[in-house]
Amino acid sequence: MDSSSSSPEFDYLFKLLMIGDSGVGKSSLLLSFTSDTFEDLSPTIGVDFKVKFVNIGGKKLKLAIWDTAGQERFRTLTSSYYRGAQGIVMVYDVTRRDTFTNLSEIWAKEIDLYSTNQDCIKLLVGNKVDKESDRVVTKKEGINFAREYGCLFIECSAKTRVNVQQCFEELVLKILDTPSLLAEGSKGVKKNIFNEKRPQPDASTSSCC
């Protein structure tokens, strides 16, 4: 049985955040990545949370992935979850123009407002490419947006699992490539493992000279 006092089972702990309009498939994407299954899920209420252990770039990683609700009424609730995130996944639905438009009108502004990590890696994901005949947002538009906002970009389908694994892998590899985020990730591990309070030196035994 694993004891919590044994050495950590992972090298880094990364916090990832998923944002975007309601119904774009954030939860389905997360489920597809963490459990290799697909479900058409109902909209998230507030915030959902999943953990996935992966080996990427020769490192053992613990990914703590926060899936936020897209509805406006939950926005104030989800703003605090931007804090300390090393990676942010912005998801839109390639068959719904409004979900793409809202990236610049709402979500990019939220990142600017709430993200505390200036080196935080952003990934733009166009979901539902399995519905190619219903597509209204072109791949070129996605590429242009990503270029303008300094994001990585990938199109995928939570349903067919096309590019789902690559989506998170690319994000994590970029985080591993960013020294300041790597330092944050290793701090997270230490906090996680050594969460007991350090004993304070006893005043009677400490001496100034």
UniProtKB/TrEMBL annotation:
**MF term (GO), any:** GTPase activity
User: From the record, what ranges are coiled-coil?
Assistant: none
Q: What is its main location?
A: membrane
Question: What subcellular locations does the record give?
Answer: Cell membrane
UniProt record, GO biological process: protein transport
User: What is known about what this protein does?
Assistant: Intracellular vesicle trafficking and protein transport.
NCBIfam families under this entry? Answer: small_GTP (TIGR00231)
Provide the protein name. Answer: Ras-related protein RABC1-like
